[in-house]
Amino acid sequence: MPIPLDNSPDGQAARPTLRTLAEHTGLHISTISRALRQAPDASPTAALVHSAAEQLGYRRDPVAASLRTRRSGAIGMVAHSLTDIAQALIYEQVDQVAVAHGYDVLVAATGDDPRAQRRRVELLLSRRVDGLVIADAHRDGEYVEWIAALGVPYVLVMRSSPGHPSIACDDYAGGRLVGEHLIEQGHRDFALIAGPDYSAVSWDRAEGYRAALAEHGISVAEHLVEAGGLHTTTGRAGMERLLDRRRDFTAVFCAGNDFAAFGAISALKAAGIEPGTDVAVVGFNDVAAAEAMELTTVASPVAELGQLAATQLLAAIDGATPTPVRAEPSLIVRASSATPLYEMPRVGALR
Amino acid sequence: MPIPLDNSPDGQAARPTLRTLAEHTGLHISTISRALRQAPDASPTAALVHSAAEQLGYRRDPVAASLRTRRSGAIGMVAHSLTDIAQALIYEQVDQVAVAHGYDVLVAATGDDPRAQRRRVELLLSRRVDGLVIADAHRDGEYVEWIAALGVPYVLVMRSSPGHPSIACDDYAGGRLVGEHLIEQGHRDFALIAGPDYSAVSWDRAEGYRAALAEHGISVAEHLVEAGGLHTTTGRAGMERLLDRRRDFTAVFCAGNDFAAFGAISALKAAGIEPGTDVAVVGFNDVAAAEAMELTTVASPVAELGQLAATQLLAAIDGATPTPVRAEPSLIVRASSATPLYEMPRVGALR
DNA sequence: TTGAAAGCGCTAACAG
DNA sequence: CTGTTAGCGCTTTCAA
Q1: pLDDT band at B340, cuts 50/70/90?
Q2: pTM assigned to the model
């Protein structure tokens, strides 16, 4: 039994406002506003107002409310790219938690470009977000310091920066796992396809990797380190550059992420080198496609990180102090790092 | 030489408003408002106001403006999941075009759940978006009809629905390409791992596939059709169900997307069947990882679709009528569909 | 409890 | 071209 709505001149059903409710109930607009923020069963008036609201299909206008309250009921997330499935996953988790708490999430992607980062954050701010989830922090503190100076609650996720609250994986430990595993598999000649060097995460992973090797008196030769970014294309290019030189390695760690590893694998295959047989390849993140790819990789609890980040940010908005989280990674061994017949001619011997 | 800002009691620098500018220039607030919407060199006043704005670091408050104008300077996009890299790509392209035109983009993901679809669209609407890019349309018209009835400019992308403006790939043609290719490769026994049946797209691909086979008097046996969704996990499950029965097929088309194909490949490998040697597998979309995976697939110009969708929506907001686009797909042949030695024992013969 | 009134920051008539 | 005025829909003092 819906009560007919007022119609504006052009025939569009006008969205009911507080005023509409006031007219229908005979109460004052401010009374309505108050009643609506109470539980429906808080008082007879509240009950009346809520049922009227329901019948008329009233939905509060968050932008009008936020103009007045200076809060928006929204949180902002800035990612480097949603095309990175790990970041997309984080977003979806953040969104889920936020919605469960009555918040909306606005996302923006920056492509890790410092200018875009600032523009996008300002955009979110101008839309009045109550807090920020930052998934594209850089190693040099500038960006994050700027965020902190804004005076808006924030939390970093996936990437960390010293002195700032962050929910991330213990990447150093992850790198160590990779190094130890490859050593155990019998490898002795290691290459590294590094992530972007603005990313503390990739840096830490590489450090862990190097540390594990160092314990066995092994180091990664300088000419066996190449940048590989975070994408298939950049990973592929990195491996191609590696292959252009002497091919004296039997194992490579793609510290950026699994996509970079996919790219590396693709370059290896193109060069007639069989990943997992001729050269071990290890990635990072354990995205869904890694299984089909038979890629050995380090699993970090990405989804949980996203949930935690949202939870902590919401708490921070309510005045709590975020507590940093360092999650434990685990190694997922698949065919791409199968034990090599070490005595076989090394790839490098070909040249 | 920044003029010192007013400081609010707590020491936070107060954001300058039109009033601040009015005080500094001695002009009236409405004059400021107007001048700001003109080019800086439109008049002496405009120049004055713009430079004052710059010095004070003024940024217009879009939420206040939108309260007044009933436009938000934002467009909304609803995706089924940003975890689907194709949808994420579309989002990034839409965002890029929108930003270039002075618009922001708000995204929301619905998981293809009808209730979530409505909730999320209402959310975007309550944030006052000026138009909608819908990337999660369903085959049954309900959702899209509802959108259309809203009276807000909209355009569908990636998925289409008869009678509504959509920017999509010619999926039927894509399915045909797959069928023709596999026939040429010498296959005669075909399976189908279908996409979700709420997706017109997957449906069309399957139809095209079947049509191509039919021209050679071949049809896909009923027991060789399984649902495979849009994710690695669901694709894998689909293939597992297929393998549980008689294995009398040498080629399978995963109509959902490449991820479903990755899942199928993973299931094949787990069963000791070599994709590309024992069974041809073909996907759809040509995501970046497909190359490393050596997956034969159909490339659709996803990025272009995203750009077009944004362009058309922006035009529609300005009163234009969107013109549907049907982009031509192309087949990317890789190792996963290598010519089989057809006379070899068929997989099905094992049982 | 409820009502009256002011105002968030901006834009859009309408006058001057 | 500029200033006056009103008001978008909501919340929040302050009185009654």
Answers
A1: low
A2: 0.89
The structural domain count of chain B equals: 3
**Nearest C-alpha of chain B: how many angstroms from A127?**
6
Q: What is the mean pLDDT of residues B152-163?
A: 95
Note whether A35 and A112 are same-domain residues. no
* Contacts of range A275-279, beta carbons closer than 8 Å, 24 or more positions apart: A275/A336, A276/A335, A276/A336, A276/A337, A276/A338, A277/A338, A277/A340, A278/A250, A278/A340, A278/A347, A279/A249, A279/A250, A279/A251, A279/A252, A279/A347
| Residues within 8 A of B (CB atoms), A 139-198 only | 151
For residue A8, tell me if it sits in a domain: no
Contact A254, A196 (CB under 8 A): no
Cβ-defined contact of B266 to A291 (cutoff 8 Å): yes
The H or E element containing residue A94 is helix A85-100
A67 touches B: beta carbon within 8 Å: yes
A260 in the same domain as A180: yes
Q: Which two tokens stand for residue B243?
A: 């393998």
Confirm whether B13 is domain-assigned.
no
Asked if B86 and B302 touch (Cβ cutoff 8 Å), the reply is: yes
- Contact yes or no for A91 and B108 at CB 8 A: no
Query: Helix (H, G, I), strand (E, B), or coil: what is residue B283?
Result: strand
Say whether both B228 and B345 belong to one domain.
Answer: yes
Tell me the backbone φ, ψ of residue B348, rounded to 5 degrees: -65, -25
Domain with A222, as residue range(s), is: 171-299+331-350
B154 shares its domain with B285: no
Pairing of strands B330-332, B296-299: antiparallel
Any domain includes B175: yes
Does residue B201 belong to any structural domain of this protein? yes
Q: Which of residues 258-297 of B touch A (CB under 8 A)?
A: 259, 262-263, 265-266, 269, 288-289, 291-294
Domain co-membership, A241 together with A103: no
Residues with Cβ within 8 Å of B313's Cβ and at least 6 positions away in sequence, in order, are B75, B131, B132, B133, B153, B154, B155, B322
pLDDT in tens, B162-178: 999 999 999 999 999 99
C-alpha closest to that of B89 among B322, B312, B304: B304
**Domain containing residue B224: CATH number:** 3.40.50.2300
Asked if A292 lies within 8 A of B151 by C-beta distance, the reply is no
From the list B64, B122, B265, the residue facing A67 with the nearest CB is: B64
CB-CB under 8 Å, B231 with A288? yes
Map tokens 């790939």 to a residue: B169
What letter represents residue B247's amino acid? R
Identify whether residues A123 and A139 lie together within a single domain. Answer: yes
* Contact state of B288 with A232 under an 8 Å Cβ cutoff: yes
- Please report residues contacting nucleic strand C, using a CB cutoff of 7 A: A 27-31, 34-35, 43, 45, 67-68; B 15, 17-19, 29-30, 33, 36-37, 58, 60-61, 64-65, 67-69
- What is the number of residues in chain B? 351
Beta bridge partner(s), residue B254:
B193
Q: How confident is the model at residue A13 (pLDDT cuts 50, 70, 90)?
A: low
Closest-CA distance of chain A to residue B235, Å:
11
From the list B104, B126, B128, which residue is nearest A59 (CB)?
B126
Whether residues B346 and B232 share a domain: the answer is: yes
> Cβ separation of A293 and B231 shorter than 8 Å?
no
Which residue in this structure is represented by tokens 């039109």? B18
Q: Taking 90 as the threshold, does the pLDDT of residue A317 lie above it?
A: yes
B148 neighbourhood in chain A, CB within 8 Å: none
pLDDT band per the 50, 70, 90 thresholds, residue B351: very low
> B69 and chain A: CB distance < 8 Å anywhere?
no
Q: Tell me: pLDDT of A298 over 60.
A: yes
| Residue B284 shares a structural domain with residue B181 | yes
